[in-house]
Structures
1.
Amino acid sequence: MTDLPILDHWIGGAANPGTGTRLGDVYNPALGTVQKHVRFASAADVDTAVSAAKKAYEEWSETSLTRRTAVLFAFRELLNARKGELAEILTAEHGKVLSDAAGEIARGLEVVEFACGLSHLLKGTVSEQVSNGVDVTTLKQPLGVVGIISPFNFPAMVPMWFFPIAIAAGNTVIIKPSEKDPTASNWIAELWAEAGLPDGVYNVVHGDKEAVDALLDNPDVASISFVGSTPIARYVYERGTAAGKRVQALGGAKNHMLVLPDADLDLVADSAVNAGFGSAGERCMAISVVLAVDSVADTLISKITSRMATLKTGDGTRGTDMGPLITGAHRDKVASYVDVAAADGAEVVVDGRGIEVDGDPNGFWVGPTLVDRVPTTSTVYTEEIFGPVLSVVRVSGYEEGLELINSGQFGNGTAIFTNDGGAARRFQREVQVGMVGVNVPIPVPVAYHSFGGWKASLFGDAKAYGPAGLDFFTREKAVTTRWLDPSHGGINLGFPQNS
Ligand code: NAD
């Protein structure tokens, strides 16, 4: 029994407690206390949600493009008008500062706006008179019920990479948000209802592996869009595709910024601090390694440390720069890498453990941390830390930096800082990474391009949102048509030839 509020699932247009008996704790990470519980779905609960979505699909997939567009526009207007409420939910459960929460919502809204153009996006193609009296048309049709499984670090934006386009295309969705910050998905469900989306088109089931496995195994779920850590992304991809589903599974990252000697070092220092410590480093596109060419490394480190000294860590509702980490366990894991760095021979230039914060002492704090001369054999370099720990690795020049980036297991994002157009052009051609910034530290593509990494950062070949997202949530059908006219007819068993 608990006196705290319990967050239910959202199935068929209403809150639903399901039949599962397990509850998860939802913390306020800035206070270090549990603020509510969330229900964990049983496999039967997931099946109930899938049945509701399957039923809603019959009508939603037949709903006119005009009507669907009106619902999408209404949702966009409501979300834009009430985004402040959602930002407060994100800060209370994730811990990111309010301005960063607002930024997350803005990037999600972009995808909603892209999906508002559904009538244009869903146009097929026609080839007239491919043979005498024969036309070929391609249609883009929805898949059916689609599953979305999201990570803790973007509780609003990552689901919004997928569901606006899925719904616009005529699919119905089941979201399984992170159990660590689940409330945003229910808040969004209520907004959809207000926007006029029919019941059962957008459903939320909460939980952990049991819920995920039930989605992966349910034969009525046509596709899975997963975002999270690499080991789980690989697992979801393998189990989902083995069950015959279309799967896109985005995994972890270790993003490098290569700094050439001719770069503007003030811009580089600003970018490294913003991209390294924004959202306490809990971003898949965070910069976690600065590859500094030897000749400028000392100057750059002094510019970075002077900026770090100005950062205020604390409760994200109080105008601070950086909030807490998501859980106590994650805080301890991130902090342990600072010991590893020292033991492996790196130089801990700024140690964020035990910093003074503007907030509750029991919050899950680690302050901005900088480690120099990190050996590339150290786990500080090879593993994703997912916290405010920025590593510096000194390199002799472009070639060594490129070789390090390309030999890593991940390929999510990277950036080069230089004023040499030739070097930048060479980098964008040679680097083995899915998203590249030139003097841009977090090169997250806008909504009308597509998001996704290479190698262990994306399993499957479908990137998220933009044109790739539209392709993922539709399947093409080619229709070859001939209308009889009296001149046709007769028997001919030969393979048809064009004439
Ligand atoms: P996670 O892999 O622990 O969890 C992601 C989702 O999988 C959650 O919904 C969780 O409930 C579920 N899950 C966890 N363990 C599972 C299991 N054993 N079986 C089935 N499902 C399971 O990731 P996280 O800690 O929530 O998020 C951080 C990770 O996500 C980082 O590695 C980060 O790089 C990555 N990420 C990647 C991108 C990208 O676009 N590539 C974007 C955001 C986050």
2.
Amino acid sequence: TPVEGEGYLSSLNAEQRAAVEHGEGAVAGPLLVIAGAGSGKTNTLAHRVAHLIVKGADPRRILLMTFSRRAASEMRSRVERIAARVLGDKAAALTEGLTWAGTFHAVGARLLRDYALEIGLDPAFTIHDREDSADLMNLVRHELGLSKTESRFPAKGTCLAIYSRVVNAQDELEPILAKSFPWCMGWAEELKQLFAAYVDAKQAQNVLDYDDLLLWWAQMCGEAAIAEHLGGRFDHILVDEYQDTNRLQASILLALKPDGAGLTVVGDDAQSIYSFRAAEVRNILDFPGHFAELARVVTLDRNYRSTDVILAAANAVIGEASERFTKNLWTERSSRDLPRLVTVRDEAEQANYVADQVLEAREEGVALKAQAVLFRAAHHSGPLEIELTRRNMPFVKFGGLKFLDAAHVKDVLAVLRFAENPKDRVAAFRVMQLIPGIGPSAAGHALEAMERALDPALGLQFFKAPARAEADWPGFVELYSGLRTKSSWPADLERVRLWYEPHLERIHEDAGTRRADLLQLEQIAAGYSSRERFLTDLTLDPPDATSDEAGPPHLDEDYLILSTIHSAKGQEWTKVFVLNAVDGCIPSDLAVGERDEIEEERRLLYVAMTRAKDSLHLITPQRFFVHGQAARGDRHVYASRTRFITEPMLERFAQTAWPPPSQGASGRSPQPNIRVDLKAKMRGMWR
Ligand code: ATP
Ligand code: MG
């Protein structure tokens, strides 16, 4: 069908349009869009995908990689809306076909299942989240005797962090230790031994951790025949937020599209904020060089998001950065509402201030959802969460604690995982030990019985549980056999919940609210076609926590967004509050020292500021609470304004103190000047 006019591209500026139409009619060569915040990179990407589809590309052969599952689904609905302007009703069916949209990890998991048999992997593998991985690392560590003999051996979390960094940075252990974990340098040999055993354990148990999803994918691409087959499945590969990919991810892209044909990457080097996860800003800077300068590079310089005063302040902050490719942006949105720099006494006052301001804005018609509160570390929002709860203001928190982190949710998912993969020891131990009378040794024996049997469920049936567990064991065996042999989705989850409920009541006092979470989980499950897809998605990108305990958001309500700056990437709100804009938080006092780390903190502040469309408040408490690190313990510290806002920049902000000096703390009016002895008066009442 002929395209009726191309009005759907008319909202784009010339550069955006060039990026959207790049390579049209021929095989598109590699394309890089590199530009500052709010310049329409993501919007351009969505238009490009829509345009490709409108021009006849097969959506099933488009691979779209974004930073989160949420970003992927937003991208898909944007593509659909854009395409609908030309294709009308047909757009929905076409964008349905855009199933290869998600994070690198999620896409990796799917491809690995597809190609499992070709690469010697059992397709029933299960995926460990970071906590499971740390548990397995710990198990292996104990088996090697590394924790017993030497109490100063790095903790399980540190071991996992080191392992993960080595894998993602594609570097040797020693330089990684020297650069990022200097206090572990004496342990290099033991760590190598540990990591080798950890890899063996994962393979024996048929589990993959997060890093494996990239590592196996990259290794798979190392086989030329598979790489070619894999690359041939996709006509177009598009990646958003490319500045935050690591070497492994770049190597995957290059293996899939060695000549860059059909490859589009989009990003902003000034927003690179994930080097602690081995993200490599050189990926984006070196992109053109990989293709012998054949790549098309599009830069965008107009910002459509923020007012000029907000942009000027953000530009000033990033202007001091030591290295930067993208240039300053301009905007046509002029405003006199300068970004505010608000001094408050402490974090409690900060919470009060934010809650007041949010409500005031809502009175003026700015929905809660159009406002966001951003912070450097997940725990910084604690006092605010308490204040919001006290005032009954609903919120959703992105980053930090997730729905999945709740013990009861993990228990239930572990049952499903164990049913999916009987070799997954971390899941098996977690599940069996829920049963009274089953400890680690009985669980270990049960697992051995399962391994010996041809069919694991039968092995479990023949295992003789200890007498103490006699009452509860048969119920578990029945559940497990049912999940293995008569699995039906999503009914499986309900079966697990019914089995789990008595245990829940025994273990937790607040069983009622936790049960409600599990019912929510069933609602989420209903949206999935299979147990395996559900488990994979939830493990890779769990729903965020909300104000009503740990449940996922009810999407029809209005709620305030609380988010770490990292999780706020790519998003925008009418009104943005940044908590703790003080030295020690931004930059984090964990980063103080190394120049690279300080530079990354500056970019973080830039990311936070550029999320705001109309109104931006940076708040600086004079004192703030520091959670115990090393020997220093929890304490209050006196803070000063973040070093990234220097004296000359102050004219770009409206500086205020809150509460205004005329009122006392907490906005109360001054104490009345009277003295009476109420105690005496009370005693007198009975005399
Ligand atoms: P970030 O770096 O933060 O990810 P970005 O470069 O991806 O930002 P977008 O989120 O795509 O920017 O766009 C920012 C805002 O500008 C969005 O509200 C988008 O709808 C709007 N926008 C982008 N391009 C145009 C345009 N040509 N005309 C009008 N609005 C636009
Ligand atoms: Mg974007």
